[in-house]
Amino acid sequence: MRSTKLRKILSKISLLLHPFHKGVDPSLATPRSKEDWLGEFKGSQVMIPDLYALLPGWRFAVNKHYETVRTKLDEWMLSWVDDQENCRRMKLADFAMLAGCFYPDAEEEEYLMAAYYHLWVFVWDDELDCGPLTKDLEKVAMFKKETDECLNSTLGSEPFNGSRQSMTPMMKAFCDVAEKVAAGSTPDARSHMLHELIGYVDSACALPYRRSIEGDRELFSRENFLAQRARSGGAGPSLILPLYIYHLNIPSSILDHESLQTIFTQACLIVHLINDIVSFVKELRDDQLDNIVPVLAIEHRIPLQAAIERACELVCTARQTLEDAEKRLPLPTGNEELDKQLLRYVQGCKDVAAGNLHWSYQNARYFGSNPKREGNKIFLRI
């Protein structure tokens, strides 16, 4: 404790003696262990700025069927999630609100399936992140195999063709969702959904192996960190789901167009960055460093508040890149209905990115039940 205080005092003196390094925190200048970084960050006071201001002109809305879907979602969760603490945490997160913010124009059934899916994927991910599979690599391999088989049999080229094999309650729960999604989607849409889900599962299941090799070496560079987050962050399936939600018939040749691919990847990036900005305080309290805010603080040797500002700048850059890509959409296609569906899909991608931000402000998952606020600014202590 005494050495930590001494180091901070010396750091402040050093800052005064070296004014040309303005904005750089000398206490962060020497590579240290994970424990040292956590010790440096904990106790800090930070301000989460008004994140709505990062997406000017975008819409923030909640689906009108929210109350009905929330009731049905809670009932469905109890039918297959048998851990009471897990149920409590999932209710606190309010995935009916999440899906309602993501897909504000969805009809009730499609909205319900979206809420089912997002609850399911969070429970699924927790098995790897903080559940019984966290350090059991053999069980991770079995879990991945079981999940891949379920995804391919329900969303593949011949969905639900043949008798169902014996499944765990978790995989049966996914079938509840996939049956509706498969029936309400075109083959091209199913193919894209399956591709995104398989990619997410591959990356998420690879993380326990990486941790077993690297241990606590979670201090990525921004470039490496964002590449890892793009693979395992899970935003892709949410962004492709509007193809089912709004029953869009957009051929792969259009979906693969450069402008749409850019819109998709930048919307994913916005989701991941916003997630990290709103969650980093909670994660630091839980002794986790794999978040863009501490990664930026460590890489650039800057205080957390400055790192928050840099993360916000990344959001603005991604938004501008996305909006520039909108100007390059392959319109008109020569088919008026396809033109409308294409614009509906682009709006769906933007709704997911904006909805993720809106949901973060609507529940207590990250900021607690009664944080200190000034408008949309949130003040927190780590």
Give an account of the 3D structure:
It comes from Sparassis crispa. InterPro entries: Isoprenoid_synthase_dom_sf (IPR008949), Terpene_cyclase-like_2 (IPR034686). It is an enzyme of class 4 (lyase). It holds the Pfam family Terpene_syn_C_2. The chain has one domain (32-381): Farnesyl Diphosphate Synthase, CATH 1.10.600. The chain contains 17 helices and 3 strands. It has helices spanning 2-17, 34-41, 66-78, 84-93, 95-102, 108-129, 137-155, 169-183, 187-214, 222-232, 235-240, 242-245, 252-255, 258-285, 292-300, 304-326, 336-362, and strands at 45-48, 372-374, 377-381. It is globular and about 55 Å long. 66% of the residues lie in helices and 3% in strands. The model is unreliable at 1-24 (pLDDT under 50). The protein has a 3-stranded antiparallel beta sheet with strand order 1-3-2. The two termini are 17 Å apart. By secondary structure, it is mostly helical.
Average the pLDDT over all residues and give the rounded result: 88
Low-confidence stretches: 1-24
CATH superfamily: Farnesyl Diphosphate Synthase
Kindly state the number of beta strands.
Answer: 3
Strand order of the largest sheet: 1-3-2
SSE order in H/E notation?
HHEHHHHHHHHHHHHHHHEE
Protein name: Terpene synthase
GO molecular function: metal ion binding; terpene synthase activity
Cofactor: Mg(2+)
EC number: 4.2.3.-
